[in-house]
Design goal:
It is a single chain. The chain has 445 residues and is mainly beta. It has five helices and 27 strands. The strands form five sheets. Strands 2, 3, 4, 5, 6, 7, 8, 9, 10 and 11 form a ten-stranded mixed beta sheet that branches. Strands 1, 20, 21, 22 and 25 form a five-stranded antiparallel beta sheet that branches. It has a four-stranded antiparallel beta sheet with strand order 12-13-17-16, with helices on one face. α3 packs parallel to α5. It is globular. The chain starts with a strand and ends with a strand.
Length: 445
């Protein structure tokens, strides 16, 4: 049987409507945790330092919550002596927040970090053990740091990072995990996940995969020569379990001025859209209807989004410098090709992982791939597996369903999906720590 082979290099971090499409098509009920778990994180809360804070109700940790990159939440068992135990599921990175809830006020005292390798989270994607004891966790509420006493060598080994260099590479990627620690976004004094609400605030970066570039990428079995070059970004707020009128607008306030396409600290959201079956809503920021070019990395700090009488606050936002505009260092991305049969139906998707280092394409090690890419069968917060690939027949029309592909494999059988290449408008793939890397590729056929 004669086969046609189309190479597809998905190097982009999606921008604008492409990001929204994944949120719209890929999300379900958020804010719960699975009923079964397979990993334990334990430790003991040590000293909580509050010096430098002018007003503080208490320095007592009342709640500890682990939040996965899939936005699942796990509440710790916390004893009066400060010892705690979290039952979670391995396969994704986790932000770990230490909170005080007093009356109608919820305060994040600190979130787990490892300063030696710049971790903002625990990379429990491919651990070598089934449990980690962090030792005593010392908390500085002024800097919002929660630092474990478990030695770095043991921690790196348990996280199966192989060496310090790999651990440091993970530290360059996980900055956006910090914003997951916002668990009372509407500031009503109730943990969002305890009232069926969930909010995601993410940074999406575009590689500038314009349709005019597509013929250059259809080059033999794989186009290994194309070099990614992040072009711009915008910010996305996605909500579940919260009510807003679809079609209204919202105002973003940035922690620092955006200087291009114009200087401003506020912007009006693109019209709020429904997030999948009326379950929630999504909006994303643009400046004068354009994505952001400068500053090259989205400003760190506190963002607010105001919709009508409601204010949504996201503190501790950080955007990884690996994804800055013009970055050519540290990006891991997949290269796909599509195999079709004589009838034009896609039978196989083959793929390889590539890494861009100082503008040069290399092959990442297995440990680097596992440090950068989560590998979960199905999240309870998002109705999508990871990594996944999806095919669209139009700007926002999904063909069938999203399809999981294995991080550690190289081929995916699509025979049973009956997807005809001539019906495909574009392809999307999502694969990284917080699913912020959503590649969009318009076939241009």
């Amino acid at each position: 049987m004669k086969k046609n082979i189309y190479s597809v290099l998905l190097i982009g971090l999606v921008l604008g409507i492409a990001a929204f499409e994944i949120v719209q098509s890929g999300c379900g009920q958020q804010g719960s945790s699975p009923s079964t778990t397979n990993y334990t994180v334990s430790g003991k809360v040590g000293t909580v330092t509050t010096s430098g804070l002018s007003a503080f109700a208490t320095n007592t940790v009342t709640h500890i919550v682990a939040i996965s990159a899939d936005n699942d939440k796990y509440l710790a068992d916390l004893s009066t002596d400060g010892t705690f135990s979290l039952k979670i599921n391995k396969g994704t990175p986790y932000a770990l927040g230490f909170y005080n809830k007093t009356g109608s006020t919820i305060t994040l005292l600190g979130y787990l970090q490892q300063k030696d390798v710049s971790w903002e989270s625990l990379p429990i994607m491919n651990p070598s053990v089934d449990a980690t004891n962090l030792g005593t966790v010392e908390i500085n509420a002024a800097s919002i740091e929660a630092l474990p006493t478990l030695d770095i060598t043991t921690l790196i080994s348990q996280m199966n990072m192989v060496d310090t260099a790999t651990a440091q590479y993970y530290g360059t990627l996980d900055d956006q995990m910090a914003v997951f620690t916002n668990l009372d976004v509407d500031s009503n004094g109730i943990f969002d996940f305890q009232e069926g609400k969930s909010y995601l605030f993410q940074n999406y970066v575009s590689m500038g995969t314009a349709s005019g570039e597509i013929p250059k990428m259809l080059n033999g079995n794989y186009n290994d020569t194309y070099v990614p070059n992040p072009a711009n970004y915008h910010l996305v707020l996605s909500c579940m379990g919260d009510s807003q009128t679809i079609g209204t607008t919202a105002t973003f306030t940035f922690p620092a001025p955006v200087t291009s396409p114009s200087t401003t600290t506020t912007t009006t959201c693109v019209t709020i859209e429904s997030t999948g079956g009326g379950e929630g809503w999504t909006c994303y920021s643009k400046i004068n209807n354009s994505p952001i070019i400068s500053p090259e990395v989205a400003p760190a700090g506190t963002y607010t989004v105001v919709v009508g009488t409601k204010t949504y606050t996201f503190r501790n936002f950080k955007a990884t410098s690996v994804l800055k505009v013009g970055s050519n260092n540290g990006l891991i991305y997949p290269v796909f090709n599509l195999v079709t049969n004589e009838a034009g139906y896609i039978t196989t998707v083959n793929y390889r992982w590539k890494k861009l280092v100082n503008g040069t394409i290399t092959t990442p090690t297995a440990t680097e791939i596992k440090a950068a890419i989560e590998n979960t069968a199905l999240s309870t917060s998002f109705v999508h597996p990871s990594p996944f690939i999806s095919f669209f027949s139009g700007p926002s029309t999904l063909i069938g369903s999203i399809i999981r592909f294995e991080r550690d494999s190289s081929s995916l059988d699509l025979t049973s999906y009956n997807i005809k290449l001539s019906s495909v408008h574009h392809i999307q793939a999502s694969y990284n720590l917080t699913s912020q890397v959503v590649c969009k590729f318009d076939l241009g056929l």
